[in-house]
Amino acid sequence: MPLFWNMVYSSTKSKKSLARSGVKNIVLVEGVRTPFLMSGTAYADLMPHDLARAALQGLLNKTSIPQDAVDYIIYGTVIQEVKTSNVAREAALGAGFSDKIPAHTVTMACISSNQAMTSGMGLIAAGQCDAVVAGGVEFMSDVPIRHSRKMRKTMLSLNKAKTLGQRLGLIGSIRLAHFSPELPAVAEFSTAETMGHSADRLAAAFGVSRVEQDEFALRSHTLAKKAQDEGLLKDVVPFKVPGRDIVSKDNGIRPSSKEQLAKLKPAFIKPHGTVTAANSSFLTDGASAVLIMSEEKALAMGFKPKAYLRDFVYVSQDPKDQLLLGPTYATPKVLERAGLTMDDIDVFEFHEAFAGQIMANLKAMDSDWFAQTYMGRKAKVGTPPMEKFNLWGGSLSLGHPFGATGCRLATTVAHRLQKEGGQFGLVAACAAGGQGHGMLIEAYPQ
């Protein structure tokens, strides 16, 4: 059932505002992130809560909000560090937030921090909270590697063994094969397919060529480098890594040339695949954090919000054949709820898991046949104009710490709306499990 928005007209534009009578306005006050680094580089010796703590401290420093003025903290993460399973709580304590503030951790693959934000919005909308910090962290430099199942069972039995004979019997049952470790993989549990294979199949299904993918990847890196050089990535807060220098910028931005990209071999489906290391997002360490509040509370505390967080949707599809098509499903749904069209959107920020995934989504969004056959819709939603799309780079170039990307996308939309003078922005992302997210953000009056 679509929501009916009251028509509040801006003096500068003829677009209606998405404010609704009787519903609290929720605002994004500030968003920050650590530099996103390729895994195995300067963050290699840290733990996930170290990065999350750095993002939270960056948010405290940037906003000067009192450490006890936040009502709740929510963090997203994907690959859990067992020692800090509720990383939200550990990071918040380390960052100096009051120990009276509850904190919990959510996981929803690549849209985990999106889920953290919208969970916070729900708490504010319900009148439970006025100020929530949401964020996300991912640390791929040190992922949990487990003993094999048989070895784990033997070790647990050894722990319970009461006699020397029982212990010797268990030790004698250990075979060389038991020592093979279980490594985590970026793969679907339900299909056992790695995401790269899925991206390759998706690109093939939509006829996305290797050249198109390489060109999109080159665009992402080129735009990210330009944004970095021009100081547009204002959400990045420098981080002093213990025992190392201060890290102040993302290190995965590497503009290349079509010729160099064309030399790379397929990474997943060999030898005929089109997905390569260069047109895929890389394993990334990083954390993000946003302060979201009711508008009333933000203004009472003297803050100047960056944007309104308006409506959002989550979608789910078949994880085998439509794993990465979340943006295609989420976009028309969230626009319809708000009574907007693609033409109303000034800023698009889509998560770039793979260049092939982005291009396949753009082709699906531009297909009446796909809309009618798979989505039960009469017509296509249309394609975002590239002059409005991911203009400061994206996950392919900036990096993609799984749990942290959603907050980066939302903060980037807010900053781009301010810089470009637009009114509405759209965040969209795909996630493992065949899930997706779409969120509408409205510029705060300057």
Automatic annotation (TrEMBL):
<dbReference type="GO" id="GO:0005743">
    <property type="term" value="C:mitochondrial inner membrane"/>
</dbReference>
<keyword id="KW-0809">Transit peptide</keyword>
<dbReference type="InterPro" id="IPR020615">
    <property type="entry name" value="Thiolase_acyl_enz_int_AS"/>
</dbReference>
<keyword id="KW-0999">Mitochondrion inner membrane</keyword>
<comment type="similarity">
    <text>Belongs to the thiolase-like superfamily. Thiolase family.</text>
</comment>
<dbReference type="GO" id="GO:0005741">
    <property type="term" value="C:mitochondrial outer membrane"/>
</dbReference>
<comment type="subunit">
    <text>Heterotetramer of 2 alpha/HADHA and 2 beta/HADHB subunits; forms the mitochondrial trifunctional enzyme. Also purified as higher order heterooligomers including a 4 alpha/HADHA and 4 beta/HADHB heterooligomer which physiological significance remains unclear. The mitochondrial trifunctional enzyme interacts with MTLN. Interacts with RSAD2/viperin.</text>
</comment>
<comment type="function">
    <text>Mitochondrial trifunctional enzyme catalyzes the last three of the four reactions of the mitochondrial beta-oxidation pathway. The mitochondrial beta-oxidation pathway is the major energy-producing process in tissues and is performed through four consecutive reactions breaking down fatty acids into acetyl-CoA. Among the enzymes involved in this pathway, the trifunctional enzyme exhibits specificity for long-chain fatty acids.</text>
</comment>
<feature type="domain" description="Thiolase C-terminal">
    <location>
        <begin position="304"/>
        <end position="442"/>
    </location>
</feature>
<dbReference type="InterPro" id="IPR020616">
    <property type="entry name" value="Thiolase_N"/>
</dbReference>
<protein>
    <recommendedName>
        <fullName>Trifunctional enzyme subunit beta, mitochondrial</fullName>
        <ecNumber>2.3.1.155</ecNumber>
        <ecNumber>2.3.1.16</ecNumber>
    </recommendedName>
</protein>
<keyword id="KW-0472">Membrane</keyword>
<keyword id="KW-0012">Acyltransferase</keyword>
<keyword id="KW-0256">Endoplasmic reticulum</keyword>
<feature type="active site" description="Proton acceptor">
    <location>
        <position position="400"/>
    </location>
</feature>
<feature type="active site" description="Proton acceptor">
    <location>
        <position position="430"/>
    </location>
</feature>
<dbReference type="Pfam" id="PF00108">
    <property type="entry name" value="Thiolase_N"/>
</dbReference>
<dbReference type="InterPro" id="IPR002155">
    <property type="entry name" value="Thiolase"/>
</dbReference>
<dbReference type="InterPro" id="IPR020613">
    <property type="entry name" value="Thiolase_CS"/>
</dbReference>
<dbReference type="GO" id="GO:0005783">
    <property type="term" value="C:endoplasmic reticulum"/>
</dbReference>
<keyword id="KW-0808">Transferase</keyword>
<comment type="pathway">
    <text>Lipid metabolism; fatty acid beta-oxidation.</text>
</comment>
<dbReference type="InterPro" id="IPR020617">
    <property type="entry name" value="Thiolase_C"/>
</dbReference>
<feature type="active site" description="Acyl-thioester intermediate">
    <location>
        <position position="110"/>
    </location>
</feature>
<dbReference type="GO" id="GO:0050633">
    <property type="term" value="F:acetyl-CoA C-myristoyltransferase activity"/>
</dbReference>
<keyword id="KW-0007">Acetylation</keyword>
<dbReference type="InterPro" id="IPR020610">
    <property type="entry name" value="Thiolase_AS"/>
</dbReference>
<keyword id="KW-0443">Lipid metabolism</keyword>
<dbReference type="GO" id="GO:0006635">
    <property type="term" value="P:fatty acid beta-oxidation"/>
</dbReference>
<dbReference type="InterPro" id="IPR016039">
    <property type="entry name" value="Thiolase-like"/>
</dbReference>
<keyword id="KW-1000">Mitochondrion outer membrane</keyword>
<keyword id="KW-0276">Fatty acid metabolism</keyword>
<feature type="domain" description="Thiolase N-terminal">
    <location>
        <begin position="26"/>
        <end position="296"/>
    </location>
</feature>
<dbReference type="GO" id="GO:0016507">
    <property type="term" value="C:mitochondrial fatty acid beta-oxidation multienzyme complex"/>
</dbReference>
<keyword id="KW-0496">Mitochondrion</keyword>
<dbReference type="GO" id="GO:0003988">
    <property type="term" value="F:acetyl-CoA C-acyltransferase activity"/>
</dbReference>
<dbReference type="Pfam" id="PF02803">
    <property type="entry name" value="Thiolase_C"/>
</dbReference>
